[in-house]
Write a structure and sequence with these properties.
Elements lengths: L3 E6 L3 H12 L4 E7 L2 H10 L4 E4 L8 H11 L4 E5 L1 H4 L1 H10 L3 E4 L9 H17 L23 H4 L11 E6 L3 H10 L7 E6 L3 H14 L3 E4 L10 E4 L5 E7 L2 E7 L11 H7 L8 E5 L8 H9 L3 E5 L9 H7 L5 E3 L1 H11 L5
Parallel strand pairs: 1-2, 1-3, 3-4, 4-5, 6-7, 6-12, 7-9, 8-9, 12-13, 13-14
Antiparallel strand pairs: 10-11
Helix pairs in contact: 3-5, 5-9, 10-11, 11-12
């Protein structure tokens, strides 16, 4: 197969060299050039069209956010943002994702060699996922209208049922990777506010998960936060896995809670969807719903199979609506998904599946 052609855009020569060294170790990737700013990048693109661009955000002459916006309008090449602003200002990373970046990764710390193996896996996977990804247009009614739930047939009175029982007795688990950030946003915007507590693992660097949770909280009517140790899971709340730790579901004193643990990578990821799904197998299947969305690899498939066998309701996104049909495909191959479909069908099902009070 033809190698994936990559253009590295970064004003730091040392970072250019490090990225080139990492990516050149993979036989499926070819570095076709480097550029120190967006103007040089335009010249390189004209000479040799890349399959994927790695892009810094803070650069001279034109910043990466401005360049990304122009690129997506004029020549939408898949972009993986690699930038130190993940540490200094992760809101810029969220803006990059909204403009069309496929992935956000922090720059490697050249002085810390012990993390380079994990970093190499992350950047290599991101490049490959971006290369095979395709753009999907989701139709969810008026997406910018926070009060619009036109994707389901529920009356407005039903979509805002009030309950005095705050602690969630049922749990919804969601796993996603490449293509998942915007999809999760669209899903949460269109969910009822009284659903069971939702735990989400989105493969994303730790520097971004808090900003991601804050963005989702502002966009939707649900209460969205980055998961913290010991959080009691409540109805109408969404808990985003902290990007530095695995997220697990536990039960203490009769209450479902979040547990964070910084263990080794599972399926090349931390947090891992499989870790979350596996932790839920200790509880009655009837109380658990597991959902696997777009993403590269197989993370979550085996855990979903365990939950399926335990009697949980399981849903995998279908190929037609997936940016990367990897994780849901593996679950379907294992017969772990009791339902498959589009995000629109998932929203409709969730909004109608929990009408009765717990």
């Amino acid at each position: 197969m033809r190698k994936i052609k990559v253009l590295i855009v970064d004003d730091s020569v040392s970072v250019q060299n490090t990225l080139a060294e990492i990516l050149s170790q993979d036989d499926e990737i070819e570095i076709i050039g480097t550029a120190s700013d967006p103007y040089q990048a335009v010249s390189r693109i004209a000479e040799n069209l890349p399959d994927v661009i790695t892009l810094d955000i803070e650069m001279p002459r034109m910043d990466g956010i401005t360049f990304l916006g122009k690129l997506m309008k004029q020549h939408p090449i898949p972009v993986v943002v690699i930038s130190s602003v993940a540490v200094e200002g992760s809101e810029k990373g969220m803006q990059a994702l909204k403009l069309g970046a496929h992935e956000i990764i922090t720059k490697p710390r050249l002085s810390i060699q012990e993390n380079m193996e994990e970093y190499s896996v992350r950047i290599t996977d991101a490049i490959k996922a971006a290369a095979i990804s395709k753009r999907i247009q989701f139709r969810f009614g008026r997406q910018n209208d926070r009060d619009d739930c036109s994707v389901n047939s529920l009356d407005r009175s039903v979509s805002s049922i009030q309950t005095t029982k705050l602690n969630s007795e049922k749990i919804i688990l969601i796993g996603a990777s490449t293509g998942g950030t915007e999809l999760i946003s669209l899903i949460l915007k269109n969910l009822r506010t009284d659903l069971p507590g939702i735990l989400i693992v989105q493969h994303m660097p730790g520097e971004f998960t808090k900003a991601f949770a804050n963005r989702l909280n502002n966009e939707s009517r649900l209460n969205v936060k980055e998961a913290e140790q010991g959080d009691v899971i409540q109805r109408g709340f969404v808990y985003i896995a902290n990007g530095y730790n695995h997220l697990q579901l536990i039960r203490e004193n009769g209450l479902f809670k979040c547990k964070l643990e910084m263990n080794t990578l599972v399926n090349r990821h931390r947090p891992s969807v499989d870790v979350l799904f596996h932790s839920a197998t200790k509880y009655p299947g009837k109380d658990i719903t597991a959902i696997l969305l777009t993403g590269m690899g197989s993370d979550g498939a085996k855990g979903m199979l365990e939950l399926c066998k335990a009697g949980a309701m399981t849903f995998a996104q279908n190929e037609q609506s997936s940016v990367i049909f990897g994780m849901p495909k593996e679950a379907i191959k294992l017969n772990a998904a009791k339902m498959t479909g589009t995000p629109e069908e998932l929203i409709y099902w969730l909004n109608n599946a929990f009408l009765k009070n717990e």
